[in-house]
Amino acid sequence: MSFFKTQPKDLILLLCFAVVVLLAPILFAPIGAGYPDLLQKFAIFGIFALGFNILFGLTGYLSFGHAAFLGVGSYSAVWTFKLLSMNPLPAIIFATLVGGLFSALIGFISLRRTGIYFSILTLAFAQMSYNMAYSVLTPITNGETGLQLVQSDPRVLDVAFGRDYGAVLPSSDLFGIGMTGYPGYYFCGFMLILCFFLTLRIFRSPFGMMLRAVKSNQNRMNYTGLNTKPYALAAFVISGMYAGLAGGLLAVTDPLAGAERMQWTASGEVVLMTILGGSGTLLGPVIGAGAIKYFENIFSAFNDQILAQVYSFLPEILQQIMVAISSLFVGEGWHLTLGALFMIIVIFLPGGLMEGFKRLRNLISGKFGGGNGSGRATAPAE
Amino acid sequence: MSILSVRNVNKNFGGLKALDAVNLDVEAGTVHAIIGPNGAGKSTLLNCFVGRLEPDTGSVTFDGKSLLGIQPHEINQLGVSRVFQTPEIFGDLSLLENVMIPAFAKRDGAFKMNAWHEVAEENDIHALAMEMLADVALDGKAHDTAAQLSRGDKRRLELAMCLVQNPKLLLLDEPTAGMARADTNNTIDLMKTIAGRGVTMVVIEHDMHVVFSLADKISVLAQGTVIAEDLPENIKGDPRVQEAYLGGAQL
Amino acid sequence: MDAIALQVLNGLDKGGAYALIALGLTIIFGTLGVVNFAHGALFMLGAFCAVSVKALLSLEAVTLDPNKLTAWGTPMEIRVPYVETWFGEFGATLLNYSVPVSILVAIPMMLILGIAMERGLIRFFYKRPHAEQILVTFGLAIVLQEIIKGIFGANPIPQPAPEVAKGMIDFGILVGFDAGNVVYPAWRLIYFLFSVAIIGAVFSFLRFTSFGMVVRAGMADRETVGLLGIDIDRRFTIVFGIAAVVAGLAGAMYTPILSPDYHMGMDFLVLSFVVVVVGGMGSLGGAVAAGFLLGILQSFASMNEVKNILPGIDQIIIYLIAVVVLLVRPRGLMGRKGMMEH
User: Fold this and answer.
1) Do A223 and B92 lie within an 8 Å CB cutoff?
2) I need a labelling partner for A30 at 20 to 30 A (CA). Which of A64, A332, C161, C251 fits?
3) Which option is the CATH number for B1-79+167-251: 3.40.50.300, 3.20.20.370, 3.10.450.710, 3.50.50.60?
4) B31 near B214, Cβ under 8 Å?
5) What global pTM score does this model have?
6) Which residues of C touch A268 (CB under 8 A)?
7) Cβ(B8)–Cβ(B57) under 8 Å?
8) What is the spatial distance between Cα B9 and Cα B45, in angstroms, rounded to a whole number?
9) Is the CB of residue B3 less than 8 Å from the CB of residue B168?
């Protein structure tokens, strides 16, 4: 165990990160995000984006099919609940493993090509999985209804340990602690901290350096005696496992799984989270995931009445016009905002929020003639 | 002793004969220059050594092992490093990282899942990389991003990346192309130092000044075939070479 | 034999749509070097041109006829489309032929849209990495489809084919099979012929005009063409406009076969990309051939006889073929070396 060999500045970063995660219910309360359902989403999608960033941020391989691994993770977790136990630990372990296996299979084929071929292949595989979940695989996925728990599920481990849920539909619990509300959040939050630590170690390792070399110049890597394929595949599988874990956690907090989690829009969302925060940076993806889930929550809740209130200071005609325009972007139209945000980020700030922070800091330190600003623990990998 | 031996290599590109029954022997510990007019097949030949191209017929043997049918990274792992005509470096990474990566490749092989270790713990590799950067006078820029370097500096960085692997054979494709005179002279000095350590080198070069300052032996390639192979002083006077290379003008 | 002929026919219309979208993708990629994830959205916008034309033509004047009463005793409403009031018989014909008529609207609309897209967004991405091109056009695709969803709603809007083309054609008789075995909806045959005509037009444009020569030269070697002193920028804009028109027409004419909805573009885009990959990136002929090939194979996979043996194969056949092709022939069926290799 070389845990304690982690560089001091990284330990501080990890500590700060853990404190923010643990105190999130208090810290995020002022912006109206201090409740467990939303915090769970922050943590789960933070894990998803952290993993995606190991692939996209470090190696530069842009996958458009990562939602498939998330979906597979959810299905695996729900099946573990049904067959083994309502304890979340076997469920997330199984979800992570299946996510890894599935991504190894898809990665092995997709990584035979690079560039846009790779993106298209992953997109095609994800769409194929999505289509199959709705058709051939209905016995496993329960098709459009989605996979749910039923009272008559075998749950052999629970039965073996004499655990009886009686006549009610069981929900996931960790040795008696229910996985809804705050305990559910802290379970996900702990996983997030763990994943963040793992990601930190990968970033600082020779392996992580090799992944960045893959992004920078594959030709040079080959002539330097390095085989790029296993590096890219390893990154792909690791990110697939993170996605599987995230999918498993979704099932832990709400034990059902549907194919819509595997759709290309969901794959696009994790790409957006990563680039919004800053691809290739450590903290960026988590920030991006949090920001998107936060604004999704706010924007989807808006409706015409609330909008009318917002614009109530305007003359009536203007108010109606503004409501009509704004309503395109909120509620059902949240995806429009998402798409527009996507474009704005790619056009104006391809480095994401972390790049923005860095520019801001350089601007400030430049003005006051401050230090060189390098060597920050959160400095992007580029 | 011959470390690289090329026997009867042929290569066609859709009817065009790029290499025609090429034979070549590179002695261990020497600098072997390959010269010839444009389109003579020099780069094609070099590409056949590193797995980028596969000859149609013939054999390429390095240190007793065939180099044909294996991947570029496997050839490198046998001890062959290559400097490209346009420097191939990791532009997004720091100079230090650029040199550490080949050092890791040499130590850990083509793939190692070294994800739990920290780069900061790798003191040996770090020291070795810094030493190599110092050798090419780039240690002052160790933490700069490689893409920002001048072309000459990129070339020197690429050389350091090859040297850190302590290769048995170093292939250089026009190492001074596009360099100013002063830079060229620096590079010649650097390569002399490297040759002094006993590294075998194969150099493709247009600049005769470079060739005659460095080479122990020269092969002249014209229209895909070796027309002369001899010591530099003999090559200078060889009428066949002057005919093929310069159309009769004196070297 | 009859069954096979029928499945080939069934695949042709869908194949035509794939081929037209893939053709545009290939031209844009080949000349501009841009991966356009919003190309499916252009197909969808074309389809909604047809929807809008139909909606405009169907605007009705409502009058009350006091002499006729409904079951509730109120005067009967008489709805007469304005076009019929104004143009009489011709107006009715116009309404009947709304889908083909919409082509006349779709051409200028799509041209303007395509040019606006290229001038306003795409041209800033010529020099940026492919990943960023993908991301920004992906964002644009979402924006476009969500706008359409906001305007037209989420449900598919059926578009009728003209009356004459609503029936079936007994294609079998024409080629010597027994009557009644190979019957085929007339509009789908029309769509196939239409797509062949457009493909023919694009190919002859590329082959016989000097503009087309430049485009083809650009696809072969972009840098050299840039050195020839040709005003590349303006031509890029027109190329993009043409590709947008082709996709739009493909979408407009497809509406009687598939009722358009806001996400049809992305559905077709994914498949068209697979088509491009199978055909070989950068090969126009490959795009067309692979489009029809995959369309036909997909229709074979939907046969009950096949589905009984391999359940669900119709859902995944295209992706499976793409995987196999990429494993066996990494450059695609007609791909050239050097395209997208770096």
Assistant:
1) no
2) A332
3) 3.40.50.300
4) yes
5) 0.88
6) 138, 142
7) yes
8) 9
9) yes
Sorting pLDDT into bands at 50, 70 and 90, what band is C1? low
Residues A115 and C282: beta-carbon distance below 8 Å:
no
Residues contacting C80, CB < 8 A, separation 6+: C60, C61, C63
Rounded Cα distance, A341 and C127, in Å: 22
Cβ neighbours around C171 below 10 Å, total: 17
User: CA–CA distance from A107 to each of A74, A100, A271, A339, B204 (Å)?
Assistant: 19, 10, 17, 27, 40
Which structure tokens are listed for A95?
Answer: 């979800």
Q: Is C278 within 8 Å of C320 (Cβ atoms)?
A: no
Amino acid letter, C108: P
The CA distance from B51 to B41, in Å, is 16
Grouping H, G, I as helix, E, B as strand and the rest as coil, residue C183 is: strand
Q: Where are the domains of chain B?
A: 1-79+167-251, 94-165
Residues ≥6 apart with Cβ < 8 Å to C265:
C40, C41, C42, C43, C44, C45, C141, C144, C145, C251
What is this model's ipTM? Answer: 0.89
Q: DSSP letters of C238-284?
A: HHHHHHHHHHHHHHHHHTTTS---TTHHHHHHHHHHHHHHHH-TT-H
A380 neighbourhood in chain B, CB within 8 Å: none
Cα B120 from chain centre: 31
The band of B169, judged by pLDDT with boundaries at 50, 70 and 90, is very high
Closest chain A residue to the Cα of B84, Cα to Cα: A220
| Contact assignment for A131 to C316 by CB distance below 8 Å | yes
Q: Is it true that domain C2-60+99-328 has CATH number 1.10.3470? A: yes
For residue B145, give the DSSP letter. Answer: B
B118–A5 CB contact, under 8 Å: yes
Q: What angle do CA C148, C150, C154 make, to 5 degrees?
A: 80
Answer whether A221 touches B (CB < 8 Å).
yes
Q: How far is A180 from chain C (nearest CA, A)?
A: 33
pLDDT value at residue A132: 86
* A and C: number of Cβ contacts within 8 A: 117
Taking an 8 Å cut-off on Cβ atoms, the answer to whether C323 and A121 are in contact is: yes
| φ, ψ dihedrals at A230, nearest 5° | -60, -30
Q: Which domains does chain A have, with CATH numbers?
A: 3-264 (1.10.3470)
Mutate to test the interface with A, among B98, B116, B155 (most CBs of A within 10 A): B116
Tell me the nearest-neighbour CA distance from A331 into chain C, angstroms.
11
A179 bridge partner residues = none
Q: Which helix (H) or strand (E) holds B59?
A: strand B57-62
Which positions in chain A touch B84 (Cβ < 8 Å)?
223
Question: What is the length of chain A?
Answer: 382
The answer, yes or no, to whether residue A6 has pLDDT greater than 90, is no
CA distances from A8 to A13, B121, B237, C258 (A): 9, 13, 66, 61
| Cβ proximity of A342 and A272 under 8 Å | yes
pLDDT digits (tens, 9 = 90+) for B201-212: 999 987 888 888
Rounded Cα gap, residues C113 and C148, in angstroms: 14
Highest mean pLDDT among B45-49, B94-98, C146-150, C337-341: B94-98
Whether B50 has its CB under 8 Å from any CB of chain A: the answer is yes
Distance CA A353, CA A343 (A): 14
Q: Report the pLDDT value the prediction gives residue C248, as an integer from 0 to 100.
A: 94
Hey, is the C-beta of C138 within 8 angstroms of any chain A C-beta? yes
Give residue limits of the domains in chain C. 2-60+99-328
Q: How far is CA A283 from CA A4, A51, A312, C99, in A?
A: 21, 12, 39, 52
